[in-house]
């Protein structure tokens, strides 16, 4: 009885071995990667250019840190990495705060000596040429110049849109400012209606908020 058992066990092992070999085993198909050689070339180039300098810098930094901190070198390097990360984060946050939203912090760039009448004339010329964005921009600057002349804002050169909003509390100005921001800062296309609204809306703003300037100067 023992021999047949040994024979059957040996046969099973041989069958398992045979079935584990190709073509009985289904291997996943191999697809060539057309970008593999390109990525390998780029990676090798980056390593050739930056590998040695970074390696040298790392060894120098480690040796200097080790000379100063001794067995606390790794702790010092971790703290240094944390400090650098925090400084980079703070700089990025400050940069975003300063840049965006641009409409909230951008200063109005009306050159000294350029009055509202000159700006209005330039806006008329821009509108006649079909440059509606420039017309909207110039009329906004002219309106700010008139607000400054009326004493509503201290200086159009250092006043932001949000500061003007908080000062005048005027729905007409809010509409003009919102559309101006969308065109000048957000890149939306200026339409003929935008130029017409700016041309008709700004005189209304000046009439509605002029008493604020008189109150400030009285």
Summarize the SSE layout with pairings:
Layout: H1 2-19, H2 36-69, H3 73-99, H4 102-105, H5 116-128, H6 132-149, H7 161-168, H8 171-184, H9 192-217
The domain count comes to 2
Proportion of residues in extended strands: under 5%
The description of the largest β-sheet is: none
Envelope shape: elongated
Instruction: Let me know the number of strands.
Output: 0
Are there runs of 5+ residues with pLDDT below 50, and where?
A: 98-113
Helix content percent band:
over 70%
Structural class: mainly alpha
Multimeric status of the protein: single chain
Number of helices: 9
| Integer-rounded radius of gyration | 36 Å
Order of helices and strands: HHHHHHHHH
Q: What value does the average pLDDT take?
A: 75
User: Roughly how many Å apart are the termini?
Assistant: 122 Å
Architecture overview:
By secondary structure, the protein is an all-alpha fold. The protein folds into 2 domains: 41-99, no CATH class; 116-217, no CATH class. The protein has 9 helices and no strands. It starts with a helix and ends with a helix. Residues 98-113 have low confidence and may be disordered.
């Amino acid at each position: 009885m023992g021999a047949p058992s040994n024979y059957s066990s040996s046969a099973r092992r041989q069958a398992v071995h045979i079935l584990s070999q190709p073509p009985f085993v289904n291997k996943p198909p191999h697809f060539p990667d057309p970008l593999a050689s390109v990525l390998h070339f780029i990676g090798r180039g980056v390593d050739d250019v930056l590998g040695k300098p970074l390696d040298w810098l790392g060894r120098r930094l480690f040796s200097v840190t080790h000379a100063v901190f001794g067995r606390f070198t790794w702790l010092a390097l971790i703290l240094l990495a944390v400090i650098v990360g925090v400084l980079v984060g703070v700089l990025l946050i400050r940069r975003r705060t300063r840049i965006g939203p641009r409409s909230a912090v951008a200063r109005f760039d009306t050159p000294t000596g350029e009055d509202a009448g000159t700006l209005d004339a330039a806006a008329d010329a821009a509108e006649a040429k079909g440059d509606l964005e420039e017309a909207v921009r110039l009329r906004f600057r002219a309106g700010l110049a008139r607000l400054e002349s009326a004493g509503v804002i201290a200086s159009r050169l250092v006043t932001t849109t949000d500061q003007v909003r908080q000062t005048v509390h005027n729905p007409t100005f809010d509409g003009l400012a919102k559309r101006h921001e969308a065109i000048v800062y957000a890149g939306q296309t200026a339409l003929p209606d935008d130029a017409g609204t700016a041309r008709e809306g700004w005189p209304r703003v000046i009439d509605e908020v002029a008493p604020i300037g008189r109150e400030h100067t009285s």
